[in-house]
Recover the amino acids of this structure.
């Protein structure tokens, strides 16, 4: 079957228009992509499963792990603290609660935990929680709900137990026992991006952890996890440690290996 020159010309024009429209749509969608950028999020992933958090929850979880490390407490203490905080505040630093309860653990000024201002400081509140927990006889071997209830003296002490599995995942990642477990992403809000405040981040870490010296790979990964959890607050876009790197990229789903970073320092930028 033969086609006239006019028909062939029309066909070519149709094809060119189709390609042009496709290219135009691609670039239009690409420009519109920022309108569909997802909100900031964090995740803790271990070989068993994962737990999703928002950045505030991740920052508080990282702080709890750092305070526990400073006090040389076992991972079981961190698990109990996480389960308690998940039940009391959903791992958030609340300025309200039942009667005069405030903060991560919903501690009360009227019960001698400290002033309201002190209890709104997660480092202070966590230290007070652990100071009470270590006084509970055999807390490491007690069922989690019993250990938490001995500290909190809540009306519903049984409510801590359902959070135990999530608390174990969080503890594995934020204590540094499982490397590369903590991943966060936050959308850049300004162009150019705010200047990283790495030294300010290290000073804040020292409030919870004490010395920021890396004495073991586990401690190095705790510091790396804390840094990733606080990346949005301090404008960090890259954290490097032990041959792996976290970057604040929307497409990234975790740490990338093959980096040339060493094990003597967690590098922030």
């Amino acid at each position: 079957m033969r086609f006239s020159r006019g028909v062939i010309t029309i066909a070519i024009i149709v094809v060119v228009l189709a390609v042009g429209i496709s290219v135009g749509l691609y670039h239009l969608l690409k420009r519109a992509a920022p309108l569909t950028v997802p909100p900031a999020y964090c995740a803790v992933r271990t070989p068993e499963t994962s737990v999703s958090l928002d950045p505030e929850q991740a920052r508080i979880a990282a702080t709890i792990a750092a305070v526990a490390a400073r006090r040389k407490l076992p991972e079981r203490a961190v698990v109990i603290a996480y389960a308690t905080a998940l039940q009391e505040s959903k791992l958030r630093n609340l300025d309200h609660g039942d009667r005069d309860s405030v903060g991560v653990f919903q501690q009360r000024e009227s019960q001698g935990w400290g002033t309201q201002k002190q209890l709104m400081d997660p480092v202070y509140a966590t230290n007070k929680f652990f100071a009470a927990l270590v006084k509970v006889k055999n807390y490491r071997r007690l069922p989690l709900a019993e250990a938490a209830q001995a500290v909190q003296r809540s009306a519903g002490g049984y409510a801590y137990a359902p959070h135990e599995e999530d608390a174990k995942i969080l503890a594995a990642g934020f204590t540094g026992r499982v490397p590369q477990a903590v991943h966060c992403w936050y959308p850049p809000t300004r162009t150019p991006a705010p200047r990283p405040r790495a030294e300010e981040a290290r000073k804040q870490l020292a409030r919870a952890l004490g010395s920021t010296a890396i004495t073991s790979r586990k401690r190095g990964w705790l510091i790396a996890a804390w840094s990733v959890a606080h990346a949005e607050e301090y404008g960090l876009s890259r954290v490097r440690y032990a041959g792996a790197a976290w970057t604040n990229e929307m497409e990234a789903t975790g740490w990338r290996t093959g980096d040339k970073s060493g094990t003597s320092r967690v590098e922030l930028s």
